[in-house]
Amino acid sequence: MDPFRLTPSSRKGLSVRALIWGALAIAALIGLGYYLARHEDRQVQQEVEESELDRLVVALRENRNRLEVYRLSGQVTTNRETRGGIGNILEGEMTVRQPWSVSYFVDMGDLGLDGYVWDERTRTLLVRAPAVRPATPNIDESRQVVAYDGPLITRDMQTQLRQGVAIGARQQAQAEAAKAENLAAATRAAREAVGRNLQTPLKAAGLGDIKVVVRAPTDGQQGNAERWDVSRSIAEVLEERAASR
């Protein structure tokens, strides 16, 4: 009997095994194709997400301007007295009423990526706005109303009186600008101004409609403020993304 000759039963066994191995190979190819397709989909999705986040980061980093958010104005009346002449025998008094104004600013350059939280699901950008700061008061000396009182006021006395009035007017305007109610009004205006200011670079970056929610440093721990405790800032997201690569 030829040992290399296959019997009908042997040939049948080989055919079954071949069919099994063929089916397994086809299943493996299908599984590999499915895995590669899913992996490619995840890569594409990740690239889309990263590209959107990167565009967001670029837009935020370009927005570094010093933003005027509020202006306060009024009139201040300042009175000063001085003595002069030989032996300081002369007395003089000066009263000045003049307009003043103070601008309040938010320096966007003080706002880093750790001050932003991006909620992709709701397409909401939460912003920790820097504190509002009043600038140096502007005293409009061109519109002064001046009154002198004294028998004789020398030039030196006038100089002293005017210097004292200038210092006093500036101090009064600064004190008015620093009042709690005026700072609160400036802070309310800052929320709206910062939100509007961010919309322009976000749209220019092709990000479409994004809701911007601004939180001031003086805001309490209620409402949107609670989300800061559980949400990662953009800076933290970028750090984690870099560490995972």
How is the topology of this model organized?
Blueprint: H1 8-62, E1 66-84, E2 90-107, E3 116-119, E4 124-128, E5 133-134, E6 138-139, E7 145-149, H2 155-177, H3 180-204, E8 211-215, H4 234-244
Parallel strand pairs: 4-8
Antiparallel strand pairs: 1-2, 2-5, 2-6, 2-7, 3-4
Helix pairs in contact: 1-3
In short:
The protein is of the alpha+beta class and 245 residues long. It contains 4 helices and 8 strands, in the order αβββββββααβα.
3D structure, described in words:
With 245 residues, the protein is an alpha+beta fold. It has one domain. The chain is 47% helix and 24% strand. Strands 1, 2, 5, 6 and 7 form a 5-stranded antiparallel β-sheet that branches. The two termini are 66 Å apart.
State the domain count. 1
Strand count, sense and closure of the main sheet?
A: 5 strands, antiparallel
Quaternary structure state of the chains depicted: single chain
Q: How many DSSP helices?
A: 4
Silhouette: rod-shaped
Core attributes:
single chain, 245 residues, alpha+beta, five-stranded antiparallel sheet, three-stranded mixed sheet, 4 helices, 47% helix, 24% strand
